[in-house]
């Protein structure tokens, strides 16, 4: 459960991670934690965080794998919503198909012009395009969609703003400071 992950990791914030196969429960995108690849997938674009805490959205072409050297954290999700301050949704190009075109509750992560990480959850059904437009209004210059629908979850500072309607296999957690991050790192 999302709340179980939050209780175990004790982050400042947490949001739904990448999509996963509901039969095998395996994530569909690459995941790296503490500079170690823990899962290899093949779709989407990646939120990558360097050890200096600088984040970037890195495109990933269908089927291309990366070693993700130099990144402390990697979460491949997608599709890309915003690239260089412009709406840049290319669902099929990033290896996605099916229900992503339908309005659904959504989650997204973006990087603002001031280089801040922005986590967003939309509990009402909406399109990827509307999420991208809202992120632009929040001064985001690069953004990627995360898993949504019944997986939509967002937690911040002790409060759940959205709770997933099903179990999640992964999520993105954010710590308030290096001390909390290092505590989580040594707990693995």
Percentage of residues assigned to helices: 10-25%
In the predicted model, the low-confidence regions spanning at least 5 consecutive residues are none
Distance between the termini: 18 Å
Shape, please? Answer: globular
Give the SSE order as H and E letters.
HEEEEEEEEEEHEEEEH
Short description:
The chain is mostly beta strands and 188 residues long. 15% of the residues lie in helices and 38% in strands. The strands form three sheets. A five-stranded antiparallel β-sheet has the order 3-2-6-4-5, with no helix packed on it. Strands 8-7-11-9-10 form a five-stranded antiparallel β-sheet, with helices on one face. Strands 13-12-1-14 form a four-stranded antiparallel β-sheet, covered by helices on one side.
Description of the structure:
By secondary structure, this protein is mainly beta. Helix content is 15%, strand content 38%. The chain is built from three helices and 14 strands. It has helices at residues 2-9, 128-137, 178-187; strands at residues 13-16, 31-33, 36-39, 45-50, 55-59, 71-77, 80-83, 86-87, 104-112, 117-126, 140-145, 154-156, 159-162, 171-174. The strands form three sheets. It has a five-stranded antiparallel β-sheet with strand order 3-2-6-4-5, with no helix packed on it. A hairpin with a 2-residue loop joins strand 12 (154-156) and strand 13.
């Amino acid at each position: 459960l999302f709340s179980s992950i939050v209780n175990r990791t004790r982050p400042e914030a947490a949001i739904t991670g990448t999509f996963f196969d509901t039969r095998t429960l395996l994530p569909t995108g690459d995941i790296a934690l503490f500079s170690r690849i823990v899962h290899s997938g093949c779709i989407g674009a990646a939120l990558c965080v360097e050890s200096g805490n600088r984040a970037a959205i890195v495109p990933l072409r269908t089927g291309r794998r990366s070693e993700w050297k130099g990144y402390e954290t990697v979460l491949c999700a997608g599709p890309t919503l915003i690239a260089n301050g412009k709406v840049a949704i290319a669902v099929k190009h990033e290896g996605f198909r099916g229900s992503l075109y339908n309005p659904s509750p959504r989650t997204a992560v973006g990087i603002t012009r001031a280089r801040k990480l922005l986590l967003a959850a939309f509990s009402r059904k909406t399109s990827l395009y509307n999420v991208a437009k809202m992120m632009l209004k929040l001064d985001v210059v690069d953004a990627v969609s995360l898993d949504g629908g019944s997986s939509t979850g967002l937690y911040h500072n002790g409060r759940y703003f959205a709770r997933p309607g099903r179990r999640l296999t992964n999520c993105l957690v954010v710590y308030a400071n290096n001390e909390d991050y290092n505590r989580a790192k040594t707990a693995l």
